[in-house]
């Protein structure tokens, strides 16, 4: 029996609501998040030995730590149809999407396979705790935590990401090779974006507790050196400007439905006889320009609500369960005095100034001041305790509770 079955799982701490971003962190090798963002973020790679000191300290004491989610527990998620999973085998090369039957996943001691489990922060509290360490980066950029578990020799292949990523070694060892090469051409014969001409420039073997940060477009290739090797990847959203503006424009167009004055018909009493009837009339252009100015549709502030709503949308596979025995408004307020209300693991909440958006919906629009304040606290601290809520019954907060978007902490 290999040692990782005997090891005690690492219990990651939940990050405090207010992170000390100007103080040195072991996670970044003794520099602060402020310094990390200024020197490395979106600029150059950073290797941190002992980013999670508990692993090295426990090993020195003769009590090595295992991953926060031990292998046998982790593998069960591959059978769950609510978890996005992918299996990559290298000899012969194959790629398949889950969910998988039990017999489809190789045993830990078999070589040359990798299982990828996406969005694990929504499915296991220990993954969510790791993700909480990175809230010095805006929530709008934070995407999810993916876990890779592999047999010896397992790996996806040399590739690059178009977003920033933190690669945290949680169990076993993995060799990483990286390159800042300009040639990012892909192998046309593979369904994954595998580089055709990877030329390693640097290589390291990461031990449990080590971390490698890579900015976008740095080519990298990771190979598992131990059975049950686990790498936890904290990834970030990097939408294109096209995507953001399209979503902003679509939601902006929807919002025009709420402006009765726009139902008025175009009229042109000043139109004069014209010799160029085929041209769009100047009168129409001038009136449209005036309307755009009146509605401030030529200013970024008009687009931001729609863009914020879009970025607060949950993942496509997110699923929310309504409470089996929902509390009535009075009981809800009473419980809120003693028990923290938190976002369900798959819920996304973002703020734009004083306005708060949850799962793509504006939650503070037209709400009473106490409900607005409650949403602002939920957005900032990801938790709420309160005792002075009024008019709860028809509020967006109570509706979010009935929909399963927010839940009481167990």
What does the model show?
The structure is a single chain. With 410 residues, the protein is an alpha+beta fold. The chain has three domains: 3-236, Jelly Rolls (Sandwich); 241-311; 329-408, 3-Layer(aba) Sandwich (Malonyl-Coenzyme A Acyl Carrier Protein, domain 2), CATH 3.40.366. It is 24% helix and 20% strand. The chain has helices at 33-39, 53-60, 71-75, 125-132, 241-255, 282-294, 300-311, 329-338, 369-381, 396-403; strands at 8-9, 46-48, 65-66, 85-90, 93-97, 113-117, 142-150, 165-171, 174-179, 202-206, 211-214, 219-224, 229-236, 341-343, 349-352, 355-358, 361-362, 406-408. The protein has an eight-stranded antiparallel sheet. A three-stranded antiparallel sheet has the order 10-9-12, with no helix packed on it. Strand 4 and strand 5 form a beta hairpin. The longest helix has 15 residues, at 241-255. It starts with 7 loop residues before the first strand and ends with a strand.
């Amino acid at each position: 029996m290999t040692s990782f079955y005997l090891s005690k799982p690492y219990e990651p701490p939940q990050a405090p609501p207010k992170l000390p971003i100007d103080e040195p962190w072991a996670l970044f090798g003794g520099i602060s998040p402020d310094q990390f963002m200024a020197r490395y973020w979106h600029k150059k790679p950073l290797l941190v030995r002992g980013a999670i000191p508990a692993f090295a300290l426990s090993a020195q004491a003769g009590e090595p730590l295992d991953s926060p989610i031990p292998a046998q527990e982790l593998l069960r998620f591959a059978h769950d149809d609510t978890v996005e999973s992918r299996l990559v085998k290298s000899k012969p090369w194959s790629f398949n999407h889950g969910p998988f039957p039990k017999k489809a996943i190789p045993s830990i001691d078999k070589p040359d396979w990798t299982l990828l489990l996406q969005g694990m922060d929504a499915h296991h509290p220990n993954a969510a705790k790791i993700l909480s360490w990175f809230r010095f980066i805006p929530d709008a950029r934070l995407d999810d935590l993916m876990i890779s578990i592999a047999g010896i020799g397992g790996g996806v292949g040399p590739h690059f990401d178009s977003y920033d990523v933190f690669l945290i070694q949680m169990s076993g060892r993995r060799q990483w090779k990286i390159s800042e090469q300009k040639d990012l051409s892909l192998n046309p014969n593979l369904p994954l974006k595998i580089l055709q001409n990877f030329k390693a420039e640097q290589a390291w073997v990461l031990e449990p507790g080590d971390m490698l940060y890579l900015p976008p477009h740095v080519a990298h290739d990771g190979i598992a050196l131990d059975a049950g090797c686990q790498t936890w990847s904290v990834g970030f959203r990097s939408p294109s400007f096209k995507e953001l503006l399209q979503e902003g424009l679509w939601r902006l167009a929807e919002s025009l439905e709420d402006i009765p004055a726009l139902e008025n018909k175009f009229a042109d009493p000043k139109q004069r006889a014209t010799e160029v009837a085929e041209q769009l009339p100047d009168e129409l252009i001038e009136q449209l320009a005036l309307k755009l100015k009146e509605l401030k549709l030529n200013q970024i502030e008009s687009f931001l609500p729609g863009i914020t709503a879009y970025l607060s949308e949950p993942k496509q596979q997110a699923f929310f369960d309504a409470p089996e025995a929902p509390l009535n408004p009075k009981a809800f307020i009473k419980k809120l005095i003693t028990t923290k209300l938190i976002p369900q693991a798959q819920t996304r909440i973002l703020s734009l100034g004083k306005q708060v958006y949850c799962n793509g919906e504006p939650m503070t629009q037209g709400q009473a001041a106490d409900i607005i304040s409650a949403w602002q606290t939920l957005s900032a601290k990801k938790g709420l305790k309160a005792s002075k809520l009024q008019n709860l019954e028809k509020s967006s907060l109570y509706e979010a509770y009935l929909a399963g978007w927010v839940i009481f902490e167990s």
